[in-house]
Specification:
Layout (H helix, E strand, L loop, with lengths): L11 H9 L6 E2 H6 L3 H6 L4 E2 L9 H5 L8
């Protein structure tokens, strides 16, 4: 998150476009907290999911045909 929210990052424009289109469906709360980017995720207004013990459940997305992309 620290990198892709920076305008100079090579994937910044892709991130912005994905965000505009509503393609970012969930950001793992636990991972965000542990990686020190929770504040950035909240500032970006991204949807948080899960808690400190559980990760975002990916199965429902995959079952609907979604492709999981991680940064």
């Amino acid at each position: 998150m620290k990198e892709i929210t920076n305008e100079k990052d090579p994937v910044h424009e892709i991130y912005i476009e994905a965000k505009k289109r509503g393609l970012i469906k969930a950001v793992c709360y636990g991972c965000s907290k542990m990686m020190g980017v929770l504040e950035i995720v909240e500032e970006e207004g991204l949807p948080l999911n899960g808690d400190m013990r559980n990760h975002v459940p990916l199965a429902p997305y995959v079952e609907r045909g979604a492709e999981i992309i991680t940064f």
